[in-house]
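Postdoc handover notes: sequence design on the structure in folder B. Input tokens:
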């Protein structure tokens, strides 16, 4: 399978996760506090899979003006190292439309092995134990699908890339594989 086919599969997975998140949020509108500027989950030091890194690299390569903006933000460090380097000074994600799976699924109620989990800001009035299983994102299933797509991309599933501009723009550190080799 070509790298482009694997990337298409990855982007289809992103669309499915976005749709599932929207579906859950629509059924539980009072339980979500997620919104523009909410960034308590945007921690520094996150890593992404090789397929996610390649997708982000393509996204950034097509937006040199955004790369310069992110470099300026990184230099000014508006969150003093306490948040993801892709957040602007207002707490908005500069790569929102291309954000990785961990960012897309956070905030929704998750099934992690046999345990339910959610952002502590969400589902504060609705007990997580009462949320139907159909309104949970199964993290193990999601990670398995991501690992399979990484395999299509011919990437080692356990190799990770830092969610940082230098790692994703090819201007420093190791650059993610984009040709599937």
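Designed sequence:
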């Amino acid at each position: 399978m070509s790298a482009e086919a694997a990337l298409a599969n990855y982007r289809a997975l992103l669309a499915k996760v976005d749709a599932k998140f929207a579906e859950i949020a629509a059924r539980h509108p009072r339980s979500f506090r997620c919104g523009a500027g909410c960034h308590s989950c945007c921690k520094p030091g996150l890593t992404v899979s090789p397929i996610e890194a390649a997708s982000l690299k393509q996204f950034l390569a097509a937006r040199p003006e955004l790369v310069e903006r992110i470099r300026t933000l990184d230099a000014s460090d508006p969150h003093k190292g306490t948040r993801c380097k892709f957040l602007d000074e207002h707490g908005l994600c500069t790569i929102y439309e291309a954000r990785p799976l961990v960012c897309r699924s956070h905030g929704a109620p998750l099934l992690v092995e046999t345990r339910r989990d959610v952002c502590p800001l969400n589902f504060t009035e609705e007990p997580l134990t009462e949320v139907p299983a159909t309104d949970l994102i199964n993290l193990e299933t999601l990670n398995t699908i991501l690992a399979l797509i990484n395999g299509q991309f011919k990437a080692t599933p356990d190799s990770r890339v830092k969610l940082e501009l230098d790692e994703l723009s090819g201007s420093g550190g190791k650059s993610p594989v984009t040709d599937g080799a």
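Context for whoever picks this up: The longest strand covers residues 110-112. Don't rerun without checking with the PI first.
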